[in-house]
Amino acid sequence: MKAWIEKGGYLNNRGRKWLSRLHVEQVRCILVIRQCAFGDMMATRPFLVELRRLFPRAHITLSTVSKYQYAVPDDLVDEVHVLDSRGSLREQVNSLRQYRDIDVLFDLADTARSRLQTLLTPARVKLGFPYRSGLNKLLFDVGILRSDFHYEAEVLLDFLKIMGHKPQYPLEFAMPRHQRALAKPRIVYFPYAAVAEKSLSQASWRQLIEQAATEFPGYRHVLLEGHKAEESGDFLAEVAARHDNVEIEGRMDLERLAPWMAASSVLVSGDTGVRNLALATHTPTLGIFFMTVPFRYWPRYEDCHEAVFHRDGQVPGKMDILQGLEELLERLYPERGKARQPASSET
Questions:
Q1: pLDDT tens digits, one per residue of 155-171
Q2: SUPFAM superfamilies this protein is in (predicted)?
Q3: Which one of 9, 25, 60, 77 has the lowest number of neighbouring Cβ atoms within 10 Å?
């Protein structure tokens, strides 16, 4: 097999030899290290789908940590290995060294723990994308660049493209899938983020949702609560009381949330795990960015995702978001007619 790489990454002699002799049917054991939260687990799903397509006979193990168990894609792998991070140092090291006779190791985490696990795990070939290029020579046979300007799920697929694999587009997440013709006239808002500074203030969200409820009367406007105590929708209670088309949806488990999201018209949110779930179900999204680089979380292979941000990094205003929402809804659902009915006096 040819190594399909020129100047876009790192490849040592062992990696080149392994690729030149690669027969996919002979690969039996694959270890994928991915230690990440909800959103990044969603972005990992296309990689695992395509990994199975490329190596249909391999036993695939996903290695993660106990902290990140929500949304682990156990339906796409044969085994989930949870690293012991609570025992003694010896027990933790033994947990890291648990696997032997691995054909292919992918480090998709680049954390101190994943680097140590990569170092301690024997494998015929090791692939990763470290933030520090100097780690390539120490840990990996094949290294790729981690771009800030392409959707994370697509960057992961570069590992397989090196082997000549042709991923499916639009990406396949093996999740419930949004169908435009069946979408309910429901706009979902998720006003939270793992880092509070990445989201608009509650006052800004309250003003946005109230004006959207007035100007987009043909839609239900639903605030989705999160799993943390501070991710309550109580701050919107007065708005919901004033508008018949505003409601607060309580916390859902993933099994219920995925099809519910897929049946919605659009999600409005910042850089959150819930937005990654919407991307995974191909549900239209309007992303709001001002701290995070938007391109890494903005798929461009389908027309249903838009991003609202300013070139100078200023926080997008209410009218910026409403304008983006109007354009997205009218582009995706032209049969519904004009989406927006501006208020007589805008504030």
A1: 999 999 999 999 999 99
A2: UDP-Glycosyltransferase/glycogen phosphorylase
A3: 25
How many Cβ atoms are within 10 Å of 115's Cβ, its own excluded? Answer: 20
Helix (H, G, I), strand (E, B) or coil at 29: strand
Buried b (16+ CB within 10 A) or exposed e, 19-54: beebeeeebebbbbbbbbebbbbbbbbbbbbbbbeb
Residue 92 pLDDT greater than 80, yes or no = no
Which tens digits make up the pLDDT trace of 99-145?
778 999 999 999 999 999 999 999 999 999 998 888 999 999 999 98
Q: Rounded distance, CA 170 to CA 51, Å? A: 16
> What 3-state class would DSSP assign to 52?
helix
Q: Are 318 and 207 in contact (CB under 8 A)?
A: yes
* Inter-residue contact 221 to 187 (CB < 8 Å): yes
What value, to the nearest 5°, has the Cα angle with vertex 103 and ends 100 and 107?
Answer: 85
Q: Are 103 and 87 in contact (CB under 8 A)?
A: no
Strand-by-strand arrangement of the 9-11 sheet: 9-11, 142-144, 123-128, 102-107, 29-33, 59-65, 79-83
Question: Quick check: 148 and 292 in contact, CB under 8 A?
Answer: no
What's the gap between Cα 53 and its chain centre? 20
Structure tokens of 342? 């501006």
Q: What is the pLDDT of residue 47?
A: 98
| 8 A C-beta contact, residue 40 and residue 271 | no
The sign of the dihedral angle between the CA atoms of 266, 271, 274, 275 is positive
Question: How far is the CA of 53 from the CAs of 3, 165, 167, in angstroms?
Answer: 19, 9, 9
> Quick one: which of 189, 186, 212 has its CA closest to 343?
212
